[in-house]
DNA sequence: CCCTATACATAGCCAAGCTATATATCCAGC
DNA sequence: GCTGGATATATAGCTTGGCTATGTATAGGG
């Protein structure tokens, strides 16, 4: 019998906040989580406009502007103008950004590994499935949260 | 077979950061996560000194001082002097603090519930077990992080 | 052409994190 | 019982990430 989902969700968020601190200290010396989070979103979506990035990252538009500034300064994203709409700024991660993200993930995982090294194979699989579930939910909420144009968008492609 | 534990840990932290944003927006209008996290730690440990609270919360001592100030201002913790050592400040959560924490968890869970309502029973149980695993690891790292020293990586430091 | 809506930028605030340093207390040794 | 180093917390000052409110430029329909 599972406990009430309410309780599980409360515990989930609590343990998340604590794990965030463990990860922050384990991967000290690296850049801030917000930048990695933003890069992660970009990686899963491909090039998008700044407003969409804000929605999908679950931050306000000004916060996305600020984060984008930091990412541009580090050469981790590129901003290009939409030829069809001069107001729009398209954001895409650069190869350097992808590489930096991968390096951060590797460093973080290496730092956390000792704490998780003695997990049983079953526990590892449980974690893996839980990550998949959570990613699915987070991306589902992204879809719910996008009040903008996801439907009638002609999907201006690529370049 | 499960994917490499490195990859799972990287994904775990990534999805955690994203989930944190979802939770922050879902539970809008409430107090900051750091205060709840601190109360959570106190709840699981009972009364402890400020320095211990900093270590267990995985924040620096000055940060713990600041957080404790906010919690005292809200009446959610009490500070008493250690009769045996005048330097020491003992921190304990108040009933009001416990109640506020419980209320926050309930509100947060209610806000997140719609996003998780359609999970299968098996997925719910996976989440529950994952939360238990993570809590166990987080508390294990607390034990590892005994004094001011951060637990070192097993790899040779080459900085 | 205006007029409104949209996309992003700017300004200005606050919280949370850090390092470095100051203050107060304890304790060991003399 | 003084002195000096160690320990517990406080203070100062900075950076980043988050927000709301508002400004500016462009799009697009009367």
UniProtKB/TrEMBL annotation, chains A, B:
Residues annotated as domain HTH marR-type: 1-136
PROSITE patterns: HTH_MARR_2
GO-annotated molecular function: DNA-binding transcription factor activity
Domain of life: Bacteria
SUPFAM superfamilies: Winged helix' DNA-binding domain
Protein name: MarR family transcriptional regulator
């Amino acid at each position: 019998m599972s406990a009430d989902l309410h309780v599980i969700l409360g515990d989930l968020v609590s343990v998340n906040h604590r794990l965030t601190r463990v990860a922050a200290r384990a991967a000290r010396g690296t850049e801030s989580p917000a930048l990695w989070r933003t890069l992660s979103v970009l990686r899963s979506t491909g090039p998008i406009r700044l407003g969409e990035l804000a929605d999908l990252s679950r931050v306000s538009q000004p916060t996305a502007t600020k984060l984008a500034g930091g990412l541009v300064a580090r050469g981790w994203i590129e901003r290009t103008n939409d030829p069809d709409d001069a107001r729009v700024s398209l954001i895409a991660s650069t190869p350097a950004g992808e590489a930096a993200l991968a390096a951060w993930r590797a460093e973080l995982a290496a730092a956390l590994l000792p704490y998780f090294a003695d997990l049983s194979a079953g526990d590892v699989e449980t974690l893996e499935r839980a990550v998949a579930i959570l990613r699915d939910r987070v991306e589902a909420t992204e879809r719910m949260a996008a009040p903008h144009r996801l439907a009638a968008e002609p999907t201006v492609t690529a370049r």
